[in-house]
Amino acid sequence: MRCRKCSQKAVVNMRQHKLSLCKEHYLEWLPEQTERFIQKYNMFTHKDKVLVAVSGGKDSLTLWEILWKSGYVADGLYINLGIDGQTKYSEMSRQIVLDFARERALRFTVVDVEEEFRETVPQIAARTLRGKAKPCSVCGLVKRHIMNRVARDAGYNILATGHNLDDEAAALFGNTLSWAKGYLIRQNPVLESIHPGVIKKVKPFFRFYERETAAYAVLSRITYVYDECPYSIGSKTIYYKGLLNQLEADRPGAKLHFFLAFLKAKKEGLFAQPPEKCGLELKTCPVCGQPTTVPDTCAFCRMMDKVKSPTVKG
Amino acid sequence: MAKNAQLILRDKIYPVKANQTIRQALLEAGIQPHAVLATRDGELLTDDEVIREGQVIKLIAVISGG
Predict the structure, then answer these.
(1) Cα–Cα distance between A312 and A304 in angstroms, integer?
(2) End-to-end alpha-carbon separation of chain B, Å?
(3) Are the CB atoms for B63 and A241 separated by under 8 Å?
(4) Measured between beta carbons, which residues in chain A are less than 8 angstroms from residue B41?
């Protein structure tokens, strides 16, 4: 297979675009497309101050690299979740992020969950009984809270994450199976700041397949965490991604069409209910000042109250 | 036909037939083509590349998330 641009040997073939590219042209194509999506979806400009949430994985590090090389003000945030045990997953991720940032002289912030809240994410999950079998729901809640807080307190006006098309399509698939109205309404590559306590969130990679961000990382020799979070093994997300990849194998472009058609349908009025009918009316948490859909303290603060309480069984 | 080539994914070896494309070999081994990148001697390969006898194709898993 040959590169469409120069006829050299191709290294990446994107069947959904009927496009194959050599190394040189692929390493140009992905940043060009990223820039195109940033502009097309009004994500941010060179005047904005962007905080990139980095996990040490291929997507977030590739995003940080591309934003940095494109001249954006893009600093990193790494959250040490304390997922270690035998795998040393968080310790390894942290080192990879620190090395990545230092090699490029990038600015970054590290938040250590255990230092700040006295317990790691798996410990909080076990102690609060939220997400009994796995700490994934606690992990998501903690990350969202910290990302928003750090961005707000440090004066960033954009929070960027490395979610790719496979992440988005799998989330949409899961939410559609249960017709989770609230999640379906909120799912968007750009979430504007609709509350003074919440920072605009963007996903510049939402149109790239997972193998495309991985290919960029491999070709540009970005060192990333190859092993997955030990808690993600057997997760619903990975199961849904597998199902969608089966579909994609027979119908190239099916994943992309699924998600883009969803965005189009939303834009044309699907889910045109008032937000309060979908439980989306945002109030302010009296403890942390972040938005919440309930009239009292937010889910994060309620959970952390349990962590502080010595009477809760672990 | 003898399985005289190999795919390796996360330290697991999948013996496959040579003289077929990587895509065909992945399907033979029950691996989803979209879930991996194929490499040989550190170089990325497209999945229409034909695997020759004795060759070892190292696969990089790309699916992440929980």
Answers:
(1) 11
(2) 39
(3) yes
(4) none
Nearest by CB to residue B34, choosing from A10, A226, A245, is A245
B45–A238 C-beta distance less than 8 A:
no
Contact criterion met (CB < 8 Å) for A246 and B48? no
Q: Is A92 on the interface with B (CB under 8 A)?
A: no
Alpha helices in A86-180 (DSSP H): 89-104, 113-117, 121-128, 136-153, 165-177
Residue the block writes with tokens 């940033």 = A38
Question: Any idea which residue has 């590219």 for tokens?
Answer: A21
Q: In terms of DSSP H, where are the helices of A105-253? A: 113-117, 121-128, 136-153, 165-177, 181-186, 210-219, 236-250
CA distance A293 to chain B (A): 24
Burial class, A310, CB count within 10 angstroms (exposed 0-12 / middle 13-18 / buried 19+): exposed
pLDDT tens across the length of chain A (314 residues): 999 999 999 999 999 999 999 999 999 999 999 999 999 999 999 999 999 999 999 999 999 999 999 999 999 999 999 998 778 999 999 999 999 999 999 999 999 999 999 999 998 888 876 656 678 888 999 999 999 999 999 999 999 999 999 999 999 999 999 999 888 988 999 999 988 888 999 999 999 999 999 999 999 999 999 888 888 888 899 999 999 999 999 999 999 999 999 999 999 988 776 555 555 678 889 988 888 888 889 888 988 887 766 543 33
pTM above 0.90, yes or no: yes
Cβ of B64 within 8 Å of Cβ of A235? The answer is no
The nearest CA of chain B is from the CA of A296 a distance in Å of 29
**Residue A272 to chain B, least CA–CA distance (Å):** 30
